Amino acid sequence: QVQLVESGGGLVQPGGSLRLSCAASGIIFRFRSMAWYRQAPGKQRELVSSITSTGTTNYADSVKGRFTISRDNAKNTVYLQMTSLKPEDAAVYYCNKDPPTKDWGQGTQVTVSS
Fold this sequence. Notes:
Order of helices and strands: EEEEEEEEEE
Distance between the termini: 40 Å
Number of strands: 10
Shape: globular
Structural class: mainly beta
Number of helices: 0
Strand content: over 45%
Helix content: under 10%
Largest sheet: 6 strands, mixed
C-alpha cells in the first residue's frame, strides 16, 4: 500500500522560505520519479517540480530559480526547498510519483501572507 506523508507547510511572509518533506512508503522509491504538485483554492492541481531516479530535475516556469527539489533515497523522502515565496505560491502541496497515481497524501498547506 502506497503512503505519502507531506509535512513542513505553514504560514510565511512574502519573501520567506519553507522546506517541505514527503516521506514515501509502499513503493520502490529509489527507482521512481517523484514530484511536487500544488492546488490553490478554485484551481486545478498543477505540477511544481519533479525529480527522476537519477536526480534530473524539472520546474514549472513560475518557480524556477526559487524552488529546489531534492531526494534522499536512503530515507525514501523527497524535499522541496522554497525561497522568495510569493502570495501566489499559497496552496496545498502534495507529492506523488511522476506521472502521478491515485495515491495522494493529505498534503501540506502553505500560506504566504503578511
